[in-house]
Amino acid sequence: TQNRYEKSLNELSLVEDLHQDGEKLYSCETCGKGFNKRNKFMSHKRTHTGEKPHTCESCGKSFSQKNNLSSHMRTHTGEKPFPCEICGKSFSRKSNLLVHVRRHTGEKPYSCETCGKRFFNHNALLSHMRCHTGEKPYSCETCGKSFSLQSNLMRHKRIHTGDKPYSCETCGKRYSRKNDLFRHTLSHTGQKPYSCETCGKSFSVQSHLVTHKRTHTGEKPFSCGTCEKPYSCGTCDRSYSRKNDLLRHMISHTGDIIFSCGTCQKSFTSHSLLLHHVNTHKDSHSGLPSYSASLALPQQGSSS
């Protein structure tokens, strides 16, 4: 017993000496990184092995580190234990709170070495860097299309699945994109949060404000310097001043069905786009939206 006790003291003394000397007790054989604590060393090793021993009992998702599992569990419980002292908004992860606080302080500690643009968090910087490198690491398993951002891939995959995870609390209408839901909710509230600084006119959609501001500046960002017809057909090179005219023309090449609005004659290549549009009109007699569909056959030997 005495020998075991002395041996333990000697081992403890050795550990203390190593800490005092700044040496690392555990060294990763794969990358050489050193650690003083065994649990951190073991967690690090899983980044090489891919092992994920911590599993969520609710959904079965696995994690390499226990703290990541704890954070994940809050997605099931709804717990948000990290509140912002400035605005009161709460978060399930402390890291998300830290990033949020920077939006109040304006701090952007992560800078792009190529263009100098700064960001609130490291992930945003990494995503931005892909606009310089052209890297698109996220690929759709269904059609093979690649994306620079994982969020863009997830949004794209809903085209294949038809998933619409965003639901309007007022009328129950569902959307595949969060921005589309936000625009829709404005139709209930009548809110127009985007105001023109020149004339004060307000808009419910930011893109409409951007278009409106050009009436003050005279800017024509899509204008061709030769003919002022910015929309060109890739098949016959015919140009149009309006995007809708180009879409109508391109159908003459493809033979697709034209979905036309009975009120303003505007045409669409899909029924869903037409239905979204016709709701802006009301038939003067029936009170119902009016629309029709017709088949446009390809015109042989013609470029229009």
Word description of this protein:
- By secondary structure, this protein is of the alpha+beta class.
- Among the domains are: 53-107, Classic Zinc Finger (Double Stranded RNA Binding Domain, 2-Layer Sandwich), CATH 3.30.160.60; 226-278 and 290-304, 2-Layer Sandwich (Double Stranded RNA Binding Domain), CATH 3.30.160.
- Helices cover 40% and strands 14% of the residues.
- The protein has 10 helices and 19 strands.
- The protein has helices spanning 2-20, 38-49, 66-77, 94-105, 122-133, 150-161, 178-189, 206-217, 243-254, 271-278, and strands at 26-27, 34-35, 54-55, 62-63, 82-83, 90-91, 110-111, 118-119, 138-139, 146-147, 166-167, 174-175, 194-195, 202-203, 231-232, 239-240, 257-261, 267-268, 291-295.
- The chain has a 3-stranded antiparallel beta sheet with strand order 18-17-19, with helices on both faces. Strands 1-2 form a two-stranded antiparallel ribbon. It has a two-stranded antiparallel ribbon with strand order 3-4.
- The N and C termini lie far apart (98 Å).
